[in-house]
Amino acid sequence: GRAYVAELTREAEAASGTEAGALWNRAMHVHHTLADAAAALAAARNAVAAAPNHYEHHAALAQRLSVSGHIAEAEAEWQWCLRRRPNDPQVREKLASLARVRYSTEGVPR
Questions:
Q1: Is 69 left (phi over 0), alpha (psi -120 to 50) or beta?
Q2: How far is the C-alpha of 44 from the C-alpha of 80, rounded, in Å?
């Protein structure tokens, strides 16, 4: 649990590039399991920062942003994913779902 994620964090901070991204991504999953949404979101952001061209890190960040209520940021991340996988129906559904959330809260289509 917490000791493991602390070790992952130390390793991720010492690493760089795709290795750091993978460690941050693992830390994100552990934080999620521990029900620490803020730490999971921070780890997801760090994974993308460490490996900015890694699709799965962007998708994980988009998901964390979505569940944390950061709708505009989540849409931007899902759009990044869609540009790389334009025929992915799951990404299209995530964007449509966020558009429905935004419309129900803001009342304005985009």
A1: left
A2: 15
**What radius of gyration do the chain's Cα atoms show?**
15
Helix (H, G, I), strand (E, B) or coil at 86: coil
Helix axes 2-14, 17-33, angle to 10 degrees: 160
- In terms of phi and psi (left: phi > 0; alpha: psi -120 to 50; beta: otherwise), the region of 54 is beta
Could you give the angle at which helices 37-50 and 2-14 cross, rounded to 10 degrees?
20
pLDDT digits (tens, 9 = 90+) for 30-57: 999 999 999 999 999 999 999 999 999 9
Q: Is 21 exposed, middle or buried (0-12, 13-18, 19+ CB in 10 A)?
A: buried
Question: Mapping DSSP to helix (H, G, I), strand (E, B) and coil, where does residue 36 land?
Answer: coil
CA–CA gap between residue 99 and residue 110 (Å, rounded): 8
Dump pLDDT digits (tens) for 53-88: 999 999 999 999 999 999 999 999 999 999 999 999
Two tokens, residue 83: 């540009």
